[in-house]
Amino acid sequence: MTDFQPKPEHKFTFGLWTVGNTGADPFGKAVRKALSPVEIVHLLAEVGAWGVNFHDNDLVPIDATPAQRDQIVKDFKQALKDTGIVVPMATTNLFSDPAFRDGAFTSNDPKVRAYALHKTMRAIDLGVELGAKTYVFWGGREGTETDAGKSALESGKRFAEALNFLCEYALDNQYDLKFALEAKPNEPRGDIYLPTTGAMLGFIATLDHPEMVGVNPEMAHEHMAGLNFMHAVAQAWGAGKLFHIDLNDQNYARYDQDLRFGSQNPKAAFFLVKFLEDVGYAGSRHFDAHAYRTDNLDGVKAFARGCMRTYLILKEKAAQFNADPDIQALLAQINADDGSLVQFSGKYSADKAKSLKAYEFDRVALGQRGQPYEQLDQLTIDLLLGVR
Ligand code: GLT
Ligand code: MN
Ligand code: MN
After folding, report:
1. Which of 279, 295, 323 is the last residue of a domain?
2. How far is the CA of 257 from the centre of ligand 3 (A)?
3. From 16, 17, 89, mutation site for ligand 1 pocket: most ligand atoms within 8 A of C-beta
4. Residue of 105, 138, 142, 184 with the most ligand 1 atoms within 8 Å of its CB, for mutation
5. Phi, psi of 317 (to 5 degrees)
6. How large is the average pLDDT for residues 348-357?
7. Beta-strand relationship, 191-192 and 143-144
8. SS3 of 201, please?
9. Which pLDDT tens digit goes with each residue over 193-252?
10. Could you point out which of 2, 10, 312, 339 has its C-alpha 20 to 30 Å from the C-alpha of 247?
11. CB neighbours (10 Å) of residue 133?
12. Is there a catalytic annotation at residue 55?
């Protein structure tokens, strides 16, 4: 049993916008005081995080003068130096300003599309200056409420054109940077384009530099779409595209809740952590969530500590699952293979196809084999509930 204390090697990160969340929502004002980026860096160090991520305007207000920008960046760098907190990821706010009311890269207004590129290039420069190696694109306003006036086909082309431009920009500047696309089905738009991680993976293959672009799947976003998050992550991993991950929680079919990691559906969180640890995912574990609106600053710290603690508890549970003799015996039974049809596995050949077509299967016998998934799942539940 470990003490579940976060350490730098766990690569736990938070966005400035996560622990900095003031609790404002569409129905009510802020309930917590806004913390400065420097205060947030110190808070993250206090709770034991490894890194901090930010949108350009989380750090530098959109209307800051160049002199103000320089001072803010200087103070932020000093806070990073004082605490040892690093910046693994950065991103652009392409959703808050009224200019982006109909999207950024997919806006019907070419001036807005040009401004979105301008803003993103500057934000990339800022991220790289602070050490970011991953650059996230979350197209929160890239979508519609009505399809009467915005072409989904044209929007896809515009989005691709923007990403192609920005890949060239990063290459031209010799930035050591990868892009990670984050899907979300809806909110703030009625429908957001490329609504799932699977859709993003298909889209990436159409880009000019697919090798530079991967995904940033978010647990809550896949849950909003009613999907199994771990399956999406597995597909991304299998494609070599898991460049980043946003961990949080979410009740299915609700508004965008961004709950503390593992707080809503610990079983799904367990299988996710088990997956990441089993395959050896080495990137950031970024918690894109925030404290309940009911809570004050102490609650924000409890929230941040809780995300990391739950991850580490589930990591230990995953190791326990892998070492449990009863669980492993069931898994061996489930995956048993007597090798009698090995000649049909693997790559295609004409001979193989011919003999497989001619082979006589005992279909009824195939249908009689059951699987002990009930037993295995109950052992998993016993383990998660702490009686194993
Ligand atoms: C916003 C969104 C998140 C994204 C952030 C990155 S901003 O909070 O809800 O899911 O990851 O732009
Ligand atoms: Mn979210
Ligand atoms: Mn996110």
Report:
1. 323
2. 11
3. 17
4. 138
5. -65, -35
6. 98
7. antiparallel
8. helix
9. 999 999 999 999 999 999 999 999 999 999 999 999 999 999 999 999 999 999 999 999
10. 2
11. 19
12. yes
Q: How far is the centre of ligand 2, averaged over its atoms, from the C-alpha of 256 (Å)?
A: 5
Residue 202 lies in a domain: yes
> What is the average per-residue pLDDT within 133-143?
98
Into how many domains does the chain fold?
2
End-to-end Cα distance, the chain: 13
d(CA 187, ligand 2 centre) in Å = 9
Amino acid letter at 160?
A
Catalytic-labelled residue, pool 58, 102, 258, 288:
58
Same domain for 250 and 373, yes or no, is no
Helix ranges, the chain (H):
16-19, 37-47, 56-59, 66-83, 110-129, 152-172, 197-204, 219-224, 229-238, 266-279, 297-323, 325-334, 350-358, 363-368, 373-384
The residue among 323, 346, 370 that closes a domain is 323
Secondary structure element (H or E) that encloses residue 13, with its range: strand 12-15
Q: Does 70 qualify as catalytic in the annotation? A: no
Alpha carbon of 218 to ligand 3 centroid (Å): 5
Pocket of ligand 1 (CB under 6 A): 17, 55, 91, 136, 138, 182, 218, 246, 288
- Shortest-distance atom of ligand 1 to CA 258: 9
pTM tops 0.85: yes
How far does Cα 85 stand from its chain's mean position? 20
3-state secondary structure of 1: coil
- Provide the token pair at 99: 């200019």
